[in-house]
Design brief:
Immunoglobulin-like; five-stranded antiparallel beta sheet; 2 helices; 26-stranded parallel beta sheet
């Protein structure tokens, strides 16, 4: 009986081996065709000299026998803008690729487009050719390339940027001291990961309503469209003055604009006219004892403060719309932060930081400067209970004034009846923007017809500052004698 079981086990094992041998026999039928997860790979616009995100597709063997791809290659070979990676092997040509029965492999594709000397996107095409048992199949590759003016870790002299083709900053770019960068309407500036524009000299960026100047990240993949923190900041050096930004949109930065840094001699200044700072990972404007005048300007959806005004300074905000909503949405992950815990506005007349003494020992330093802060005919809104935080030391002036403003803040945290600091406040009312949430699509910070911000402004503020007569869209604020709060005047 034992011999019988031994014989039976041997026969079973032999059948299993033979069956395995039969399964491993290559399928050589000339009618063998493989299946692909797609027939075309599309790449969004790729800036010249920068690699794209990696795309991929799968090749399926639906047969119960292994299939061998005799050749898999790029049709344009070494002249192709595209690159292949097949099961970890890089190169434009691969051969003898085995796909087991009822299995699949991944093929990864990247593209780098060299400068094309063209001012508009051009199409770059190629194909992945797959030869199996004499049958040819292909996957089409299509990428759109945009030539750019590239600045990589450079210090520039005075020059003018035009809208002919975009500008790309990689690894930072600085405007040299006493030099001026002039940017004309319609110009687009892309900044690569962690890159910043550093202003030692002066920046004069003057767009128009129809042709705004745009600063944004250098990624075009759909998932990056609304991802904050793709690039660094526009940094205004402490001794850089008279900077001007008009009809400039800054989006998806880490911090939209940093004005100065903790320096007792800082005197940096910038004027913002009709600007938008949107979807910053940390702060919209981060300032240290600076001098900022802003009007008809929107600052929205920052992971921390929309305005972080430290170490005193001179600040005037007229007809500005400041809103922090999308960054707070539970479960909505956007560019590194999930929910905001910082107030929309912080202002102080001091800044604590660590410095080194003459013996290179770390010491704590408190830098103090007088604060003069003014908000007029403006909106400060968010979803936290307290959206305004202030702090001061006694040996520096601490002057702030909110005049005809809609603000969101705890009812007991400030004395809104104090005439020294407040005048006509609309407290904790929803301004009813048409759309203030990036979750719901394109921003629109115009007021809805039921907004409490309508007709709540003071026309005397406009009479005192004639440049406030027209809103962001060019609509008059004085026709009905009752201006609205914020950057947009509503017309029924």
């Amino acid at each position: 009986m034992k011999g019988f079981f031994k014989t039976l086990s041997f026969v079973g094992l032999l059948l299993l081996i033979l069956s395995g041998c039969r399964d491993e026999k290559l399928l050589t039928d000339k009618n063998t065709y493989l299946y692909f997860s797609t027939d075309t790979i599309y790449f969004d616009t790729i800036l010249t000299t920068l690699g794209s995100v990696t795309q991929r597709f799968k090749i399926y063997n639906v047969y119960d026998q292994p299939v061998e791809i005799s050749e898999l290659y790029l049709a344009q070979g070494s002249d192709s803008y595209f690159r292949l990676n097949v099961d970890g092997e890089k190169g434009e040509y691969h051969k003898n690729i085995l796909i087991p029965p009822d299995d699949s492999i991944y093929v990864f594709v990247e593209v780098t487009i060299d400068p094309l000397n063209a001012n508009s996107p051009l199409v770059v095409k190629d194909s992945v050719i797959c030869l199996t048992n004499g049958n040819m199949q292909d996957i089409k590759l299509i990428a759109y390339g945009q030539d750019v003016n590239l600045f990589r870790n450079e210090i520039i002299k005075s020059q003018t940027w035009t809208s002919d083709k975009p500008y790309l900053i990689v690894e930072n770019m600085a405007i040299d001291s006493f030099e001026v960068l002039t940017i004309e309407p319609g110009t687009i500036v892309y900044l690569h990961n962690y890159s910043s524009l550093i202003v030692w000299g002066r920046l004069e960026a003057t767009g128009t309503l129809e042709k705004p100047i745009i600063f944004t990240g250098a990624r075009f993949d759909e998932e990056y469209e609304n991802t904050a923190g793709q690039w660094g900041t526009i940094y205004i050096h402490p001794r850089s003055t008279d900077n001007l930004l008009e009809y400039v949109t800054i989006r998806n930065a880490n911090a939209g604009i940093q004005v100065g840094y903790p320096d007792p001699d800082t005197k940096s200044s910038v004027e913002l006219r009709n600007c938008m700072i949107l979807n910053s990972a940390s702060r919209g404007i981060y300032a240290f004892g600076g001098n900022i005048t802003a009007y008809n300007t929107v600052i929205a959806d920052c992971g921390m403060y929309a305005l972080g005004l430290n170490m005193g300074g001179e600040y005037h905000f007229y007809h500005c719309t400041i809103s922090n909503v999308s960054a707070f949405y539970p479960g909505y992950y956007q560019g590194g932060y999930k929910s905001r815990v910082f107030p929309t506005i912080l202002f102080t007349n001091y800044y604590d930081w660590a410095d080194l003494d003459d013996d290179f020992r770390i010491i704590d330093v408190t830098l103090k400067r007088d604060l003069n802060l003014e908000f007029a005919n403006s909106i400060i809104y968010g979803v936290l209970t307290q959206e305004i935080y202030k702090d001061s030391v006694s040996d520096a002036e601490f002057n702030y004034y909110f005049d005809h403003c809609l603000i969101k803040n705890h009812v007991d945290s400030l004395d809104y009846e104090d005439p020294e600091h407040f005048n006509f406040i609309v407290l904790n009312e929803d301004p009813n923007f048409i759309n203030d949430s990036i979750v719901l699509g394109a921003y629109n910070f115009q007021l809805d017809t039921l907004s409490t911000a309508k007709d709540s402004g003071d026309i005397r503020i406009i009479q005192d500052h004639s440049f406030l007569e027209y809103d962001y869209l060019g609509n008059s604020r004085i026709l009905d004698g009752q201006p609205d709060l914020g950057a947009f005047e509503r017309y029924e």
